[in-house]
Amino acid sequence: MSKKPSKSKTSPSLQLGRAVEWPDSPEKAQLDRVPNPQGGTDYLVRFTVPEFTSLCPVTGQPDFAHLMIDYAPGQWLLESKSLKLYIASFRNHGAFHEDCTVMIGKRIADEIKPKWLRIGGYWYPRGGIPIDVFWQTGRVPKGLWVPEQGVAPYRGRG
Hints:
Blueprint: E1 33-35, E2 45-55, E3 62-72, E4 76-78, H1 80-88, H2 97-112, E5 116-123, E6 132-136
């Protein structure tokens, strides 16, 4: 019995598996989703972004953060290449820490419609003050194991 070649499970509009231009702003960046093959199971997906950068909207100086994105998928998964391109689009984007963190969380939630999502933005100090920003879509699904994000609070040299 011969097997038919399987059709690609990715849409031609996905960025996965092909060369794409780096987006120069978050608004121009495309976030892709793919079907969740484990749609009937509650589980957690974590993306760690330890070297996030954006620009201060006032001074134009670079800001740095460690982002932790946790979500419980519904029908869709967030495709990681598109997330990398989206995250990179902030490198020349001016926005406050709070705006960047919440904007990323909301955009992902709007695109993939997870059962639950949270983002932690652990921003490195500028002007001597670190800022940590947290946002989530609602309550954690009952029974879902959600580990701590594991990012230590900023301690400086002390």
